[in-house]
Design goal:
The structure is a homodimer of 629-residue chains. Chain A is α/β, with parallel strands linked by helices. Among the domains of chain A are: 87 residues, Ubiquitin-like (UB roll) (Roll), CATH 3.10.20.30; 74 residues, Ubiquitin-like (UB roll) (Roll); 141 residues, ATPase, nucleotide binding domain (Nucleotidyltransferase, domain 5), CATH 3.30.420; 109 residues, no CATH class. Chain A is built from 16 helices and 29 strands. The longest helix of chain A is centred in the middle third of the chain and has 24 residues. Chain A starts with 7 loop residues before the first strand and ends in a 17-residue tail after the last helix. About 3% of the residues of chain A have low confidence.
Chain lengths: 629, 629
């Protein structure tokens, strides 16, 4: 091939203006990774999810055709980064918000700790050791020699894992007594988990996971720099055995059920790790550790621990935290040296995902009183500061994920995410994720639509269509009155997409549960909403909420807008923060012991607050002074 | 069977006078275990080794016939305890010294620590935890509840092994929130290795091993009392691949060789554990931990670590110590909760077996200067006190195990173990192990014979037969001059059993290596033999040495006899002491770092001392004032 050298081209990523030289045939996705430009992909670069869309600004690429992109888009210069290959100099525009699953990177988040990222002090470190060659006068054991070298690195006491040193004679002798030791720092005494020949210190990776009931989100992190090498989301394969947590727990009562679900989660983790490693060109063998944050049931299923008691009063979790364990012991396809860490849970209904997010925000270090809300199938709430913290979960139901809504859907391409009635003649305008034909409405679309219909008087405070509004789009459907969001001639299914009064009622119940949960939790510690310094909204969904509309509908409290902080996936952020900082991991683990759980379902005050919240925005308008009537 | 109740009989063991009631059909061996009477068995009670001989004093037993016992013996009332069953009241005499492998129990040993046994504080403990039943007001996680209970037992921080708590929901609920936790104390922070339903605190066992090249000796110990439940010895199954250490190391260069040898050792350990458990009626699942002391090569082979560097200058061991590891990781057939501990080595030629013995004697705590000698294939020597300790190994060769001796053999039944020329007419008298027909001569027999022949002038100081002695038993054989120990008409083979001048020369070389080793080691620290406070002789062989005869031949130094201490198998004793006392385990582990190894093979002074020792007892008679010429 000497007569046909590889040609190199310049690729520029805008708007950041990052330039990189690559070889002919490299994909744009791979090029972006090389340039440190973060593109989301949920399908692992197979061209099916469409979440890595970019736009050509100058030059062209060789693209493979894909169903995930329309001819219209292609005509506009849109391409899938994973299906496009460099064949000339090219300038690429990175599109934001094209993917429904785009996570907020740590750097975007606020509050004390994350104003400045935690100091890089990862849970697993690599150390190059240059050992003296043995002589007749110094024939100490190989391992003793190693321990002395570790002492010189400041590690006086180190637990030696047998598996790590089983081949020590060959390892030390292969590269002239130069070796690299991997230490795990999350144990009371550092643990030597791996020993390699020569200098391998540049390859030390970790994976952070948010283990959700529906989706598992993963980040591959370079532990030497703290930077994200790849990020992936996949559906939790357990979904084959039930969408919700209760059906998963029920399945575990079947013989072998726990092991089936455990394996499906592990399969998902394995696929995510494999894909991220392939995308970023690293060897999975160089993954030294994992941190997993997740809800209590998902964590117990990952560990194959019977979740049955979580379903029955008094809802007792099996574990809060366990000591770091070997990933191979769970069937994860990684080296024997890779250790897995679990972020501990507070209670059955407040898992390590919440603890991780709260810790990532630095609430436990702050003098200020912060309210943390994670909105998903459940709304989990934490309020407090460095001295105290209380938490509760309120059953918001699956409304914000499309559940219980006639044309509800997840925030994926085709979902209506915004709605407005435009002056002068109140023409309805919808905004659809992925610029696709509308297929349904997602959680943020629901909030925005209800807010707009309420603001314009089409919807009354009780959540019913106002008979005096005489709106052409309101009609009588098979489930009662409904609003036509999109007509069949423009929808992907050919059917009208509607929002019914029943949908709106379900939405109001959900938003009331969250607001009443916040109110009750704060009343339980005698703090008024106005005393809050910050309201932190976590969750992928939360990141897409329009604050004004959320307040208008009474989902969020009516406080000065600058108090709101949107952090995206707090769970993943917390797992990430813990893996790159052992202090953060320790603080997060302690936090679960500090937070006090409060049970709302048996709380009379909660029921009163909930009923009072079943209006738009609330029965008590004094609580929402900025919302006009 | 209600009409045929089991009948009970009284069995009395003499000379201790211990009485016990047992059922018809129980074996005498099982009855002895029940009575706490220690009988040695090396074949696991299968009737083949003959080491559990007892004598009937009153009454009779039902015995199964066995090749391991002669009709003569049976006529004398001798029986094999394992093949004899109770059918009436019976009084049994326990015979001492019938077994060549009888270990010295810890209680027989002397010196500081073992004058009083170490305080019972075992490496693994069991704790009964009675947990509060969860309520709506107290729905802490199962594991958190458990941790609080452990805190109440004084354990503030405990490492939780995932495998131990995987079934925690069922374990805690099965016996109404009463559970038993097993803690391992040899880690920097205690480790929860097992959790069981209800109260299982009475069943907590450990196994101590002396892992030798030829034989593996094991003790099953009740960790709640420190008492020995069973003791067994088996040949190391690695012997199929070579009798000596060098041939084992060589075999490891073959593909898969290490794994083959590793598995053979593990097979031996498994068989020993199985047999001891069966004999004492315990469930192997209740074995919580193991401690293994052994020579450096055997330990590396147990751990499947390449021993090749141990064979080549500068003779570097792979490991000194490793952190406790799970026995299942080595293929040992015990529960996942069982942890194995290795007593660390000082050097390739001074292993954990020596360190264990030295620690068991309390040399590291003593102001006195002690000399520790373990005589086997190698002679390992340690001298020092609480402030300093030096060690060396000297190649004594296999003489004392019968190697290099024409009719040499191990100290098993049929071996001549004593010899004397009785007045008035110097009639030779031999004493044979097991009262059997003589088959050869063992190490102690060799010392006693050479000493007697030298004392009576038949042998000269140079180890040659004295031509002026005109002894009828000295004759010219095919290998030169030889002494007839037993004639063919009385020997088991029908051939004469002889001791040749070549045999005597080999013996002298061996005893010279040991004496010169001791002398050189002591000179290296500037201490004279007369300054020694104690001389501790370890090793099964050592236990059978006649001190006077050993001094007469120059094997042992000529110091006041009360300074000699015979401790038997120091390695097994040390493993035993470590398993019942975590302080002893810690002290033993530290000891390997404190002892300084000295290489004799490259030491000029050693060669000089060795050559000077090649006489009976020595060229310098001033060193042996008590030995008359």
């Amino acid at each position: 091939m000497a007569d046909k050298p590889k040609r190199q081209f310049n690729v520029v990523f805008e708007p950041a203006g990052i330039a990189v030289q690559v070889n002919t045939g490299d994909s744009i996705l791979k090029t972006a990774l090389k340039a440190g430009v973060h593109l989301t992909t949920t399908c692992g670069g197979s061209g099916t999810c469409g979440s890595c869309r970019v736009r050509l600004q100058k030059g062209d690429v060789d693209s493979v055709s894909s169903d995930a992109i329309s001819q219209d888009e292609i005509n506009q210069g849109i391409r899938l980064a994973c299906q496009s290959y460099v064949s000339q100099d090219v300038t690429i525009e990175v599109l934001t918000n094209t993917s429904p699953d785009l996570e907020a990177p740590v750097a975007q988040t606020s509050l004390s700790m994350l104003n400045s990222s935690p100091e890089l002090n990862p849970v697993a470190t690599k150390h190059l050791l240059c050992l003296p060659v043995p002589t007749a006068g110094d024939n100490r054991a190989d391992l003793k020699r190693l321990r002395y070298a570790l002492k010189n690195h400041g590690y006086d006491e180190v637990i030696i894992d047998y598996q790590a040193v089983k081949n020590i004679p060959a390892i030390l002798r292969e590269k002239a007594w130069e070796a690299t030791a991997t230490l795990i720092h999350s144990t009371p005494v550092p643990l030597l988990s791996r020993l390699e020949s020569g200098d391998t210190t540049t390859t030390n990776f970790g994976v952070a996971f948010d283990l959700g009931t529906t989706a598992i989100r993963a980040r591959l992190i370079d532990l030497n720099t703290g930077s994200i090498l790849a990020e992936q989301t996949a559906y939790n394969r357990q979904r084959d055995y039930g969408e919700d947590i209760i059906s998963r727990i029920s399945f575990c009562r079947k013989r072998g059920g726990i092991d089936i679900l455990q394996k499906l989660t592990v399969d998902t983790l394995n696929a995510l790790v494999h894909d991220m490693a392939a995308l970023s060109g690293i060897d999975t063998d160089n993954i030294s550790c994992m941190v997993v944050a997740g809800n209590t049931v998902m964590i117990q299923l990952l560990l194959a621990i019977d979740p049955e008691p979580l379903r029955l009063s008094p809802y007792v979790p099996a574990i809060d935290s366990v000591s770091p364990l070997k990933t191979v012991d769970l069937g994860i396809n990684l080296g024997r040296h890779c250790y897995l860490h679990i972020i501990p849970a507070v209670a059955s209904y407040v898992g390590g995902d919440i603890v991780a997010g709260v810790a990532a925000c630095g609430m436990h270090e702050s003098d200020k009183i912060n309210l943390y809300i994670d909105i998903g199938t459940n709304g989990e709430i934490v309020v407090g500061n460095r001295d105290w913290m209380v938490t509760a979960a309120c059953s918001a139901g699956p409304t914000f994920e499309g559940g219980g809504i006639k044309h509800g859907m997840l925030a994926i391409p085709g979902a209506i995410e915004d709605f407005s009635l435009e002056a002068p003649d109140a023409t309805p305008r919808i905004s659809v994720i992925g610029s696709a034909s509308p297929a349904g409405i997602c959680g943020s679309g629901l909030i925005n639509t209800v807010s707009e219909l309420f603001s314009t008087g089409i919807l009354g405070r009780n959540g019913k269509f106002n008979p005096e509004a005489s709106c052409a789009r309101v009609r009588k459907g098979e489930d009662g009155l409904e609003y036509v969001l999109a007509e069949g001639n423009s929808s992907s299914s050919g059917r009208d997409i509607v929002l019914t009064e029943i949908d709106i009622d379900n939405f109001i119940r959900s938003k009331a549960a969250i607001y009443a949960g916040c109110q009750t939790l704060m009343e339980s510690v005698g703090i008024d909403m106005s005393k809050l310094d910050n309201i932190i909204i976590a969750g992928t969904f939360g990141n897409h909420i329009d604050t004004e509309n959320a307040i208008k509908t009474g989902l969020l409290p009516d406080v000065p807008r600058e108090k709101f902080r949107f952090i995206g996936n707090g769970s993943l952020m917390g797992a990430h923060a813990s893996i790159i900082s052992r202090q953060q991991y320790a603080a997060t683990s302690r936090l679960a012991d500090i937070i006090t759980g409060i049970e709302l379902s048996e709380n009379g005050a909660f029921m009163d607050n909930y009923v009072a919240s079943l209006f738009l925005p609330h029965t008590d308008l004094e609580k929402f002074p900025s919302v006009g009537n």
